[in-house]
Every structure is written in structure tokens, then in C-alpha cells.
Amino acid sequence: YQRRVHGRFVASSPIMSLTKSVESAYLAVPAQRVWEMLRDLTNLPLWRTPVQSATMEPGAVPWSVGATVNIAFKDGVHWAVRITEISDHHRTLCYEVISCEPESHVLSMVHTIRVHDVTETRHAVVELSTRFSSDATAHTIEDSKYKKLESFRSLRAALGLAPVQPAAH
User: Fold this and answer.
1) H/E element holding 44?
2) Which end of the chain has fewer CB atoms surrounding its CB within 10 Å, N or C?
């Protein structure tokens, strides 16, 4: 079994394992308000500091499974992502990176955004997760964690919430 990595083919095992990065945050605003912002990937620049722009592929049916969103990062990286799942009932959005320029060092990345209701307060718990293919390094997983934590800080600001002090680990 061969796959392409950094422009060349390398032998690898056909058995892939997944590595997952998951972070969550409590937000003292209604879950529906948070979901309305997060379900639209073109809103990424509002709550993901590194994102410069996010635009729906021309001709795509917005916010539907199969739609492609082009994401430009401030550091010059460009992603094309495809929405693979969206549920207003479960407040879940999944998307996979289908192309990356420059080429990613990871074969596969699937991102999930979930917004849960805190039943006592009707506030939100936001969960951001990424499933990586087995070629992801420890550095990649750790970097993903800190990007998610930074996203929560940006999301709080976009929602007009005060910053919180992260818990010590």
C-alpha cells in the first residue's frame, strides 16, 4: 500500500488508526445563539483568529452535506473543506479537509463542532474535536489543542463575553 506524502509515494500499512483531539468550553449564552454562529463555516473569521476568510464554493448549496468551503488562513495556508454532517437537532457540524496548500503533513483531518445545552441554565457547552490519521505527530495533536483553546477565547469575544482564566492542567 502506498500513499503520497509531501509529493512522493511512501509505503505504509493499509491499517490506519485515528488520533483524536477534543476540547470543550462552557459559554454563558443560550446554546441556540452559539449554534447559529458556529453552524455557518463562513463565520469562521469571527471566532477563529488565524482565519482570514471562509467562502462557500460557487454553486454549492449552502450549509448542506457535500458543500465545499474554502478557508484562507492569515499565514498563507488554504484549505478546502467538505461538510460531511450537519444537524440542527443535535447541533453538530462535521467537515473534512479535502485539500490543503501547502500540502499538509497529515493524511486526514476530520473536524467536529458540537453545541450542547446545559439544561439547568440553557447555556452552551461547545466541543471542538479533530480526528487525525495515524501519521499525526504528538506536536500536531498538541498544536491542535492550543488552537482549539484560542478558538474558545475568540468565540467568547465574538459573543461579547468576558474572557476566562483557563484551568491549570
Assistant:
1) helix 44-47
2) C
Distance CA 45, CA 58 (A): 19
User: What is the structure's pLDDT at 4?
Assistant: 53
Higher-pLDDT residue of 137 and 12 is 137
Q: Is the peptide bond before 50 cis (omega within 30 degrees of 0)?
A: no
Residue that is written with C-alpha cell 465545499 in the block: 68
Using DSSP bridges, classify how beta strands 18-30 and 68-73 pair: parallel, antiparallel or unpaired. Answer: unpaired
Q: Count CB atoms within 10 A of the CB of residue 101.
A: 11
Predicted structure pTM score = 0.85
Tell which residue, 119, 145, 150, has the closest CA to residue 132. Answer: 145
The 10s digit of each residue's pLDDT in 144-169 is 999 999 999 999 999 999 998 767 76
CA–CA distances in Å: residue 117 to residues 102, 126, 149? 38, 9, 20
**Concatenated DSSP letters for 102-158?**
SPPSSS-EEEEEEEEEETTTTEEEEEEEEEEETT--HHHHHHHHHHHHHHHHHHHHH
